Protein 1
Amino acid sequence: MVKDKEEGIKKKEERHVRKCEVLLSSFVFVLCFLRVANAQPVSRTVLASYALNATPIPARPDTVPLFEKPHIESEGSHKSPFLAAALSAAVPGLGEYYCGEQIWRGLIFTGLEIGLWVEYARYIQRFNDSTTGFRSFSDAHFTKGKYATFLDSALVVHQLKPIADSTNCASINRAEAQLDSLGNLSVNPDPTLADMGHQLVCSDLQQYYEMISKYKQYIPGWDALANWNEAAAKSGRMNDTFGVAERFGWGIIINHILSAIDAALLANDHNSRLRQIGR
């Protein structure tokens, strides 16, 4: 029952992340479409004059943009594409606000930024909580003393002096090295020591907890095999949660890059229209 519930939670999180990825991809597609649409004018038939006095009605321009741009007269001074890109690289949407047109594009980038940061912070908090829970569970069910006792017992079986001390990680490593050599003898190797190829790292907590929940040689240090399996599952879920947080982190970086590019293009378009009227 617990396992089914955890699987359901994991699938729900995966669907949530996929929705966020689809949203970001859809926004990029729409932005590209609008960019192309603005660059391609759509022809429009000029209306003929039907006035009785044959005075022609001034014709409208032969072409108009699919999406109307701001009036030239109100556009003001030239905008620096570099400054626009730098502003949006710092805060997505800020460069679009600086350009002063099509503000909705800046609002979308700013909204995405807020949403991505909220999700990133949420999953980082969940990762921290799961890390605390995983380590507390491991401390409750695994002891270096029990593991050191196993190592000494194996050394005595092979008529070697017991040297493992639970308070001294270096002595545990020496015992592991001796047992590993016995499991890799070219003649009559001990098959029960075939998995002794790792050495416990005590100075790095992240690596320490990962090792005792991952490699079979540390099972003797656990109070029950079921708890070792549970710790391995907790470690996997913890890493999956961090992986989701990382994906939102990459989304934040991509959002900054896209907003910077969009702001620079917006500033270029603004300056091009000013040049057309000689300003």
Protein 2
Amino acid sequence: MTWTRRAALLAAAAAAAAPLPPGGLAAPSPGGVAEREPDRRPRAACLSLGGGARAAGMAGAGGVLGDGASSAASDPAGLAAVAGPAVAATHELPGAGIRYGSVVAALPLPGGAGTIALGGAAYDFGSYAIRDENGAGATTARDVDSALVLAWGFANPAWLGGNGRTGIAVEGARETGSRDLLAYSVAGAYEVAAGVELGLALLHAGPALGGCTPPTVARAGLAWTAGSRLLLACDAEAGVASRALAVSVGAEARLAAGLLARAGWRWRERADGLGALGGA
């Protein structure tokens, strides 16, 4: 089981992905009444969070390498590398009373047909007071978003070139105060040179419903296995709706049998973040 706390990495992400108010007011119509524009910004933040120990320790880099059962949501092609039954759980505390948790279980299929995974996540924004226009009659409310994911990863058959792996996932999200969303992810990883893998992924894509858009991300990454003790990785991603760019670089060193050290750096247009994780 993998357990991560990624407060440092997720503080900026939580602030950017927290529920947003409806769109602003457009210019007044000919009748003199301002019309509210629909909110086209990405929603369902719980779809774009998660990831396992490798993603946390390498600041988001290394998606092409796979991340155990956690790959179901972050890069389903990585499930092809899961050799036995696996469970991954995360619990994250970005701050300001916000909490995020997820659980994913993965199971290899017989006959080398790949690995399937089923998981769920919840994004708790904490409680807040609701008052009337006079500031009286306070009641307490709590917003909790949730998501489910079903994913399948498999080694590429001969008709796909027989090189690398592919993964697909279907996701559903329920967001407080918004409509339910349905999204999908498609990812692939291919060995382009000795010890070098290229990964491509389209994550959390889907139609806009009621003005709400999934947090679709297009990502490309390279990973280099430098001998038996060192992995180097670089990922670049762009939000399709948000148009936000991010680049992550990371390294994983095998210090001894069963002992790994990971470190990474992530640049975003609005915030930088450092991440490091050591584990046995």
